[in-house]
Amino acid sequence: MAKIIFLVDDSATMLMSVKNTLEMAGYKVETAEDGVKAMAKLTAGLKPDLIITDINMPNMGGIELIKKARALPGFRFLPILTLTTESQQSRRDEGKQAGATGWLVKPVGGADLLKVIKQVLPGA
Amino acid sequence: MAGQSKNNRIKKDANNILFISISIILIIMLMSVVFYSTLDAQLGRYQNIAILSVVALLVWATQSRLLKITQKPFRFISDEPVEITNDKLHYVIDRLSAHVMQGDTTQDFVKTNFSEIEVKLIQSMQALNTQINSIIDLLKSEILDDSHDVLDANIMQLASTLTQYVNANTAIEKALRDNLKQTYTLLLKLQTQLEFLTQSSVSTQSLDIEEKRIHDLEGIVETHLLVDKAIDEQLQVVTFDTHQSALLLLDLMRHLSEDAESIVQYIANANEKNVSKMERDMDNSVKFIISIEQFIQKIQEIPDKLRSDIVSIQAASGVIDGLAHLVDSIKEISFQTDILAVNAAIQAAHAGEAGLGFKIVADEVRKLAVNSNNAAEMIEMGLEKARHTIQDGLKFKFLDEIMLQMDSASQVMESVKQLQEGQEDMQQYYKTLFAVINKNNTKLSHDISEVLGSIQYEDVVRQRIERAQQVILERNELWRQVVEQLSTGEVDGLITQFNAVLSDYLTKESYHNNSMESQNSDDSSSLKFELF
C-alpha cells in the first residue's frame, strides 16, 4: 500500500514538480493550494502519512495550517514538513512551536527531498 | 498672476535704471572734483581721497547688486494652471529623484559658474581701474585746449566699460538664474502644482516653509532611493537565481539527454548484434526439439519390442525344453534297451551253443543302446548349446538396442545442453540489458528528480518579485499621501513611514534564504534541512 503524502503550496509549478518526483518514487500524492483548502480536505477525511506544506500562502499560511492540523484527531504524531523560501531561525522556531517535524528551505533537489521523507516516514 | 509677474519685471527695470543713474552721477561728481582741484590747489589734496571714495562706492554698489542677485530667491511659476494626474506626479517625482541623484553634478556646475563670475568681475574691475587712471592722468596733464575733447572721449570710454560691466553682470546673472532654474525647476514645479491644489496664492508662502518642504521632500526622496536600492539588490538576487537556475536546468537537461542517448544507443547496438544470433539459436533449438521428440518416440517403442523379444525367447526356450524331454526319452529307451540286451545275453549264456547267435544279437543291441545314449547326450549338449546361443543372441541384441538408445540419449543430452546454454546466453543477455537499462533509468530518474530543485527557483524568484511589488505599492501609496499632506501641512511624518516601509521590506527579505549569501555561509539559517 503506497504511503499518501499531502502537498500544500500556492505555487502551481511547485505542486506539479514535487508531485511528479514523489509519484515517481512510489508515493500517492494529494494536493491543496492553501491552508483553507488543505484543512477542508483533512476534515473531509483525508488521512495522509505525511504533510509537506509551504509557509507563505494566501488565505491560510503554513504555520496556522500546522496548528489546526495538529488539533485534529489522529494528527498529533503525523509527520509535517515545511517547504519554504524562509530560512531565518526565528521562523524555524515558530514552525517548531506550531508542531512541524522538520524545516526544508527551497530549493530542494529531488534526492534530498526523498532522503528527508525516508527519515520521517520509516519503512516507506 | 501674469500681472504680478509684469510688475516684478517693471520693478526690476526701474532698479537697473536707478543703479546706472547713480553710477553716472557719481562719475560726474568725481570729474567735477578733479576738474575744480586743478583750479584750486587747496582742493588738490582731497583729489585722491575723492577718487578712492567714488571707486569704493562703485565697488560697493556692484557687489551689493551682485549679492542681491545671488540671494534673490528664484521663483518659477507656471502661467497656466496644471492639472495634477498620477502620471504627471510620478513623472515629477521621477525627475525629482533623478535630480537628487545628480546633486553632486549640479553642485559642481554651480561652483564652476561662480568661478566664471569671479573671473569676469576681476576683469571688469581691472578695466574700470585702467579707465579711471587714464582720466586722472589726462586731468593732470593740464592740456586745457584739448582737454574737453579728450575728456569727452575718456568719459565715453568709461561709459562703454561700465556698459560692458553691466552686460557682463547681466550675463552672469542670467547664467546663475539658468543654473538655479535648472536645479530647482522640478522641485518648484511640484511645489507650484501643489500650491495650485491648495488654491492658495504662491506669494503668501514664506521661503522658510517652502525650503522646509523641499528639505522634507528631499528626505523622502532619499528614503525612496534607499527603497529602490533595496529592491534593486533583491532584483540582483533574482537575476542571479534565475541565471543559476537556468544553468542548472541546462546542465541537467544535458545529462538527461546524454543518459537517454546512451540507453538508446545501447539498445540499438544490442539489437543489431544479437538478433542474428538469436535467430540462429532459435533454429538450432527447433532442430534440438525435433531430435528430442524422435528420441522420446523411440523410448516409447522400447517396451513393445522388449515384450515381443521376451515372447520369442520364451517360445524358443519351450521348443528347447521339448527337445530335452525327447532326449530323456531316448536315454530311457537306451537304458531299457541296455538292460534288455544284458538280460538277453544272460539267457543266451543259459542256452549254451544254441544261444550263441542270440548272444551276438544281444551284444549288438547293447552297443546300440550305448550308442543311443551317446547320441542322446550329444543331442542334449547340442540343445544346451543352442539355448545358450539363443540367450546370448538375445543378450547382444538388447545391448545393441541399448547402445543405440544411449547414442540417441547422448545426442538428446547434447541438444538439451545446447538449448540450456542458449537459454542461459539469452538470460545473461537480457540480464545485462536490464542492468544497463536499470542503471540508466536510475540516472534518468535522479536527473529528472534534480530538475525539481531548479524549478523551485521559479517559486523563490516569484515570491521575491511579489515582495518587491508590494513595497513599490506601499511606497507609491506614501507618495500619494505626500501629495495630499503637502497641500495641508507637514510631510516630515511621512519620512518615518517611508523608513518603516523600507525596514519592513528588509526584515521580510532577511527571513528568506539569500542564495547569493548562503553559498559561502556557515550560518545556521542557511541550513537546507532541519528535523526538529
How does the SSE layout of this entry go?
The complex is a heterodimer of chains A (124) and B (532).
Chain A: E1 4-8, H1 12-24, E2 28-32, H2 35-43, E3 50-53, H3 62-71, E4 80-84, H4 89-98, E5 102-105, H5 110-120
Parallel strand pairs in A: 1-2, 1-3, 3-4, 4-5
Chain B: H1 2-39, H2 41-44, H3 47-71, H4 86-101, H5 103-140, H6 144-198, H7 207-350, H8 356-488, H9 492-511, H10 515-518, E1 529-531
Helix pairs in contact in B: 1-3, 4-6, 4-7, 5-6, 6-8, 7-8, 7-9, 8-9
Explain what the structure shows.
- The complex is a heterodimer of chains A (124) and B (532).
- Chain A has helices at 12-24, 35-43, 62-71, 89-98, 110-120; strands at 4-8, 28-32, 50-53, 80-84, 102-105.
- Chain A is globular.
- By secondary structure, chain A is an alpha/beta fold.
- A five-stranded parallel sheet of chain A has the order 2-1-3-4-5, sandwiched between helices.
- Chain A is 43% helix and 19% strand.
- Chain A has a single domain (4-103), classed as Rossmann fold (3-Layer(aba) Sandwich).
- With 532 residues, chain B is mainly alpha-helical.
- Chain B has ten helices and one strand, in the order H-H-H-H-H-H-H-H-H-H-E.
- Chain B has helices at 2-39, 41-44, 47-71, 86-101, 103-140, 144-198, 207-350, 356-488, 492-511, 515-518, and one strand spanning 529-531.
- Chain A binds chain B through residues 9, 11, 13-14, 17-18, 20-21, 24-25, 56, 85-92, 96, 100-114, 116, 119-120, and chain B through 245, 445-446, 448-460, 462-464, 510-513, 518, 524-532.
- Strand 5 of chain A pairs antiparallel with strand 1 of chain B, so a sheet runs across the interface.
